[in-house]
Design goal:
Layout (H helix, E strand, L loop, with lengths): L3 E2 L11 E2 L1 H13 L2 E3 L5 E2 L2 E2 L22 E3 L2 E4 L2 H14 L4 E4 L22 H9 L3 E4 L12 H19 L5 E3 L7 H9 L4 E6 L12 E3 L8 H8 L4 H4 L1 H31 L8
Helix pairs in contact: 1-2, 1-6
Length: 285
């Protein structure tokens, strides 16, 4: 999982940015070691399909998906920052690599009347999103305004899921059936509503390997940061020492999940309390 590929991150994206040279070195490592990147939609309940060549966004992916005998890997980018088009896409093109970009539709540079939320850096334009798709990059949804989906009431959650997908499909002229949860936050309710909204696959973060039995609507990913050294990157993509590398992330994620569930429960109880406390028919106020 990548966010920003740039040598000049903003203070808000610095922790999740990767320098351009480091990204180029990482992609060269994948190529040299025989990895064949596939679109995220190639994943299902049984894990990655090394022979998959289609993608859910309508991008052709021709010549970019791994064939039999290859080592499939999925490269994803969240949010839709402008530096993907400037810095990451040329590197991916050079290697003929597939990738998936999860776009926050309300953050796009020319979102216009659909603008929503506050992007952390410069973002892609609609034309650049379409150009990426034409280059074989899969385009997925990342909500419309980048909220914490698991904290939204049902109506707002449905709107976030449907609006982002609808805008992408209208602009790209192709079905969009995959998404990534903002911040990686989801819940059983969010995943259930994501499926109802038409998504077949979705990914969180979790920082663990995607096992063959993973829920297709909660596929974990491994975070690549500026601090990810070449040796660490090699260990990650080879699947070595994952629990040790991401131990701190696991502890924080699990602890925060408990806090988030409690927070949503309290909000829901508070929202229901006025109705429950309202006087019934024939009762005195």
């Amino acid at each position: 999982m990548y966010h920003s590929v740039t040598d000049r991150p903003t203070p808000a994206t610095r922790g999740l940015s990767v320098p351009v040279a480091a990204f180029a070195e990482q992609m060269a490592y994948l190529a040299a070691r025989g990895f064949a990147p596939v679109p995220f939609s190639a994943l299902g309940a049984s894990g990655p399909d090394p022979g998959a060549s289609g993608n859910a966004s309508g991008a052709s992916g021709s010549g970019r998906a791994g064939g039999p005998g290859t080592r499939p890997v999925v490269i994803t980018f969240d949010d839709g920052y402008a530096d993907f088009h400037e810095n990451a896409l040329p590197v991916l093109d050079r290697h003929g690599f597939a990738a998936t970009v999860f776009v926050t539709t309300g953050w796009l540079a020319d979102a216009g009347a659909d603008a929503a939320g506050r992007p952390l850096d410069r973002t892609l334009s609609w034309a650049q999103v379409a150009e990426a798709a034409a280059h074989g990059i899969e385009i997925g949804a990342h909500s419309h305004s980048h909220p914490q989906l698991d904290q939204l009431p049902d109506r707002a959650l449905r709107e976030e899921l449907a609006r982002s997908r609808g805008l992408l499909e209208d602009r790209l002229g192709a079905p969009v059936r995959t998404m990534a949860y903002p911040f990686g936050y989801s819940s059983a309710r969010v995943r259930r509503m994501a499926r109802a909204a038409g998504y077949d696959t979705a990914c969180a973060v979790a920082n663990r390997m995607a096992a063959g039995t993973a829920d297709p609507l909660a596929v974990p990913r491994l975070t690549v940061r500026a601090s990810t050294a070449p040796r660490t990157f090699a260990r990650v993509v080879e699947g070595r020492d994952i629990p040790l590398i991401f131990f701190k992330d696991h502890v924080l994620t699990r602890g925060y999940a408990v806090v988030r569930r409690a927070r949503y429960g309290l909000r829901r109880a508070a929202a229901l309390r006025p109705a429950a406390a309202a006087p019934g028919r024939g009762e005195r106020p």
